[in-house]
Amino acid sequence: MDEFPDPEDEFELLHAQEMEAMREMEEFDVEEASRQAALIPPSFKRSLNFTSPTPLSRTPTNSPSSRTTTSSEPSSTTTSSEPSNTTTSSEPSSTNTSSEPSNTTTSSEPSNTTTSSEPSNTTNGPPLSHTTTSQGTLLNDGGTSMSDNGVERQTQLGGTITGGRKRPPPEDDGFEEALDILDQDDFATHRKKRSRPLVPMLGLSTLLGGKKSQDEQNEEDMLLIQQITELRNSLSKTQQHNIHHQDLQGISTALVDRVAPVAPNIHRHIPSSGDFQAVTTDTGRRFYLGRLEEDEWDARVAAVGTRVGASTHLAVGSSYLQLKAQVEREQIRRDAQLAKRIRDEEDSGMESGVEEETEERESLWVEKFKPQHYLDLLSDESTNRLVLHWLKLWDKLVFGVDKKPKKQEKKKKDFQKDNKFNKFGKKFGPEVIEELDDHNRPVQKVLLLAGPPGLGKTTLAHVLGRHAGYHTLEINASNDRSPEAFRTALETAATMRSVLGLSPRPNCLVMDEIDGAPAPSINLLVNMLTGKDMGRATKKGSKKKEATVLHRPVICICNDLYTPALRPLRQIALVVQFPPTHTARLAQRLLEITRKRDLRADLSVLMALCDKTENDIRSCLSVLQFVRSSRREVRLEDVMGAAVGQKDHQRSLFNMWSDIFSIPRQKKIRRNPLQEPLADVSDGTLPPMPDLNGDLSKVGEDTALNYRVQRILSTTYHAPFDKLTQGWFHNYLNIKTASLDNISRGLDWASFTDIQLAEVGHSQSWSLMAYLPYACVSYHLLFASHQWYKIQFPTQMNEIKQKQTKMENLITAMVNDMSPKTRAHLNPPSPSRMTCDLLPFLLHIIQPNLRPVNTQLYSKQERADLNALIDTMLAYNLTYTQERDQNGQYSFTLDPNIEEVVQFPDMKSERQLSYPMRQLISREVELERVRRAEARFTIMENETSTTSKDKRNPPSSKPQNEVAATANNPKVPLPNHLHKLQAKPLSKPGNVQGAGKKVVDGEIVQAPRDFFGRVIENPVNHQAKSTNNEIVKSDIWFRFKEGYSNAVRRTIRMKDL
Amino acid sequence: MSLWVDKHRPKELGKLDYHLEQAGHLKKLVECGDFPHLLVYGPPGAGKKTRIMCLLRELYGPGVERLRIEHQNFQTPSKKKLEIITLASNYHLEVNPSDVGFYDRVVVQELIKTCASTQQLDTTGQRHFKVVVLTEVDKLTKDAQHALRRTMEKYMATCRLVLCANSTSKVIPAIRSRCLGLRVPAPTVETIAQILQCVCKKEGLSLPSELATRIAEKSNRNLRRAILMCEACKVHQYPFSSNQEIITPDWEVFLQDTASKVVEEQSPKRLLEVRERIYELLTHCIPPEVIFKGLLREMVKFCDGEVKCEVTRLAAYHEHRLHLGSKAIYHIEAFIASFMALYKKFLEENMSKMF
């Protein structure tokens, strides 16, 4: 792979396609003749061969060889090498078969056998060296490489001249060669085939000049030659006549028929008897060339000999062996011809089919009119260039720079320089791959072509791959695409090149429809592409590192670029979004095709077709072919009636909305099916539409409306109606022209859609969905305008929904933690009922007018109010919590923040409690909560541990008294069943209670304050501490620390608070 | 229990303030030992739940007031976990199946089955049945209601159902026929005023009778709201004065403003503004029916006789569609838009008549 073929070959590589095409064109001229030649009985043809040196007579026999002359020079190709040229990939085998028998039979004639066994030398040898050495080789081997017809003739001539000489002397040979060349030259100029092959000729003719002296000795011989040519002339005339006669027959017979009877030696199936050699054409067809047994061969040759002998031409007196060689060559050539013809038929069966109108044998037009060359491509030029540039970036790695001639290299360098300045020039980042020292790969190692179907992505990849000198290898969805299969495909593509075939090109991998490939496969591809790191990481693994690095360009093709599986590939790929083909360009091409296919079509009709199919080349061609199959004219109604272009478009919501809100441009109304019939009327054909009689201008309007309706129906026929309606709802009021009537009608449709969707969701009757596109139509008809509006995505609904959920959650949070008794009477505790009835008032009620002073300073009434408030808040599970807002300010907010639920934005703000008030309430609520918990706990303690009651009495009585005293309300929510139990301890320490009260009263009276304005409760504490030392011994006790330093730190008991 | 609503709620059938005849019937019903399934219905704030609780107390004694909150878990056939909060005493179980929305059928079936399939062990001194209170029955899906009617018959021996609904129109006839319907009408304004006076007396406050009537009128004959209003008024300003401002919820004011905005100007631009306001109301959990009602009440004030009918018809039409559909905003906006169109035409006609 490293060495690149020399420039001449490269030229061939690059242009092999064109050259082949040219060759085929030439072939075409002579095809009839060659076919004719095949039909001529061997003896007849051979005799012709022997005796007709003049160009005129030579035409039928020369035709096969003339085709080969196009390659580089006229004399270089041999008859036996012809098969190798024509049946490219597997030809060596076929040449072997043909040469094999000749080898065995004609061992005595080395010159001929070598000719036939060494075809490749002659075909691929450089032209110049060949001409210079041709003399020598001719002298030595008796014309190694010159086994053209001229040579054949010449050897025969030599035979006639020398008269049954076994081996002609070298000089004579040289002379004959010269003669032959003269002849050939003459022939070449006469045919005016090509200017290029003539150049070596001239060189030879100058050589010839040097030998003139020798030639003069043989004037007699020249006379003889003239005689012979005359003879040939006369014979050729009769021959020509015969040809014409047979020509008609040959044309009339079908191709298959033509092949079968003429070539008993070539079989499409394994021959039932006899030896055979299998031959595979490059299209994959297999043929079996029957092998003749040696005896049979000899016998045949002998028979030829006798027949030849019977004719006048035996008088020439050529040796038997020469004749035999001749026969062999003839045989070989004929076989090769047949093989080639069969192959040609297969390759371009259409080529002949076109002329003969064998319609049933036509392949799809899509295949037939596939672009073959870069210039044929219909896709956007810039895209093509982009892709080609990228492919060319691989040249350095793939084709190497080793043996590049100066010019080529310079060119390439220029090219690269250009690349550096174009937009993706940065791709030449040096990426050293192990083993290979300085091979650069483009940074974007893979090309990702994305676009809707039918734009020619695959074609582009193939054509460009070929154009850049690659052999494209396609893997598509029909192949196995498991990771393993992928790996092997990639590895073979990267490491191998086709050994067989004329041009061993490097591979270019085309991965079609990659968006359908499984994600692991794509990951594998990505790993291989970014292979370097992976290779190192998995060095210990069984995988070989070099195998995981890709040295060949890979083109991936997908329809949907945003398939999740493609995500990793997108990162490393050069993503080319395939732009749609220009309608005009496509229509132009369609027109060409319709002309070629004898199909009458108007450009406007084709444009309409393009519009309808959204420039899908494939479906356009299919429609045309379909029409052609029945008729010779495409009319607009064919196009309109065809069920094409109704793909499941994945139109985005925004497209749908803009479709709804905009009236389509006038140009689209071209599709109006009534315009074409109008043209038809002038043609004299009957108008197919009966409604033409009406007012035409009005009809146009009608259909415009009709078209609009159809358009909306088609775009929205399976839209997500929910979102679609939301989007419409969100945007429709921005349409300035809408009247209130229209708005209310449109909204009616919106609510209709809503009802339908609800019903569908409820009863799962999806058939109702069919009515929904009509809502979209009415939106369109009511609100569409020519003006363009920026359409916003309807986020509002979701936002509202989120907000609502948030509110509901707030309320549910509140309800769930409410005390069961309160909850029981909320009927029902649903958020909506709560917000309507309870919460607004509750919010007022929990914000009473309290003085923001220490609670100790409250009057009894205030105190009662506060307690009531706290009780309410606890009952409804509300409290204040400190929060810090954005400005860094602290504030107390309600915990389930029902303020948010109740208050509306632009309402005058309600009276709110001040910060200290809220702080105070929050504190009180917290304390009350703890107190209740403690109360319940102590009660439970009392209840459970009746035995330890006596012991516990002194300490436990105190807090209970405290609770009773400070709370000063009898509504401590003790469960019903505990009321009795509570009464016992209360009744017992009646004195203590009184003492406690005194203390409390004393506090209120004295109210000594500390620095912060708090009541100093030290005496109480001391008292409590001194008296209730046993508290510490009890199971649970609290230690509450307040403040930051020791200065204010003090121990406060819960019960004291 | 310090809100007046809760504090002064009657706990026994004998202490009810109004519908005394009905209370007597209920008492007799309980006394005779057995009683059928009940379907209690009436507007909000009429005292349905109070009567149910009184009835239960009458049945089981004060034990029913010892309530606990239980979180029950269910699994739908599609393996979705549901949690619902129930309120239970030893004798009864209260649940709001519409909390779980679409899956209410599962709750109805499972919950009642588990509750009703167990017999009371000790029937001496107790009833031989338990009571399951289902609230918001009118919000149950049809599926759940159908599931319910089977359950009702099957577990008749061990279980009585008390259904509570605002309206029977959404309760399927099969259920209606299986229950003893008990309509609790909203108290009259006079009754409410009377009750307010009574409550204030208990609180030691003096309430001017004018204020009491005003509050009663403003409350839309919703007793709960009336008492809450009264308390809010008290918090706002005490001692009461007969012409003091009665606190109205924000959303009502907001809704009224919205309606007046609609009447003010009829244009797409205004419609867009109104939409924002409707969204605002919806986010604050105001039910769309209430919005319809509020809008209509305001709008009708600005219309003449014939147009009045038409507007009402439109409101009814769109509210009906709202119940069929799912997205309230479409229907409310459709109503507003059609009102705008109608009203504009009406105004233009008037103008042309004038000139």
From TrEMBL, chain A:
Cellular component GO terms, alphabetically? nucleus
The answer, when asked if Secreted is one of the entry's keywords, is no
- Gene Ontology molecular functions: ATP binding; ATP hydrolysis activity; DNA binding
Q: Where in the cell is it found?
A: Nucleus
Keyword vocabulary terms for this entry: ATP-binding, Cell cycle, DNA replication, DNA-binding, Nucleotide-binding, Nucleus
An example GO BP is: DNA replication
Compositionally biased, Low complexity: which spans? 51-123
Bias (Polar residues): 124-159
The residue ranges of the AAA+ ATPase domain are: 443-580
SUPFAM superfamilies listed in its UniProt record: P-loop containing nucleoside triphosphate hydrolases
Question: Which parts of the sequence are annotated with region: Disordered?
Answer: 17-175, 939-974
Describe the family membership recorded for this protein in Swiss-Prot or TrEMBL. Answer: Belongs to the activator 1 small subunits family. CTF18 subfamily.
Question: Which PANTHER family does this chain map to?
Answer: P-LOOP CONTAINING NUCLEOSIDE TRIPHOSPHATE HYDROLASES SUPERFAMILY PROTEIN (PTHR46765:SF1)
Q: What is this protein called?
A: AAA+ ATPase domain-containing protein
Automatic annotation (TrEMBL), chain B:
Q: Which organism is it from?
A: Petrolisthes manimaculis
Its assembly, as annotated, is: Subunit of the RFC complex, an heteropentameric complex consisting of a large subunit RFC1 and four small subunits RFC2, RFC3, RFC4 and RFC5; the RFC complex interacts with PCNA. Forms an heterotetrameric complex with RFC2, RFC4 and RFC5; this complex has ATPase activity but is not stimulated by PCNA. The heterotetramer of subunits RFC2, RFC3, RFC4 and RFC5 interacts with RAD17. Interacts with CNTD1; this interaction facilitates crossover formation.
Which branch of life, at top level?
Eukaryota
Q: Where in the cell is it found?
A: Nucleus
Q: Where is the AAA+ ATPase domain?
A: 34-190
Instruction: Kindly provide the name given to this protein in its UniProt entry.
Output: Replication factor C subunit 3
Q: Which Gene3D superfamilies match?
A: 1.10.8.60, 1.20.272.10, P-loop containing nucleotide triphosphate hydrolases
The Gene Ontology biological process terms listed for this entry are:
DNA repair; DNA strand elongation involved in DNA replication
**Predominant location category:** nucleus
Do you know which InterPro entries this protein is assigned to?
A: AAA+_ATPase (IPR003593), DNA_pol3_clamp-load_cplx_C (IPR008921), DNA_Rep/Repair_Clamp_Loader (IPR050238), P-loop_NTPase (IPR027417)
User: Which protein family is named in the record?
Assistant: Belongs to the activator 1 small subunits family.
Gene Ontology MF: a single term: DNA binding
Q: Give the protein's function.
A: Subunit of the replication factor C (RFC) complex which acts during elongation of primed DNA templates by DNA polymerases delta and epsilon, and is necessary for ATP-dependent loading of proliferating cell nuclear antigen (PCNA) onto primed DNA.
Task: Print the keywords alphabetically.
Answer: DNA replication, Nucleus
Q: Which Pfam families match?
A: DNA_pol3_delta2, RCF1-5-like_lid, RFC_C
Show the GO cellular component annotation of the record: DNA replication factor C complex; nucleus
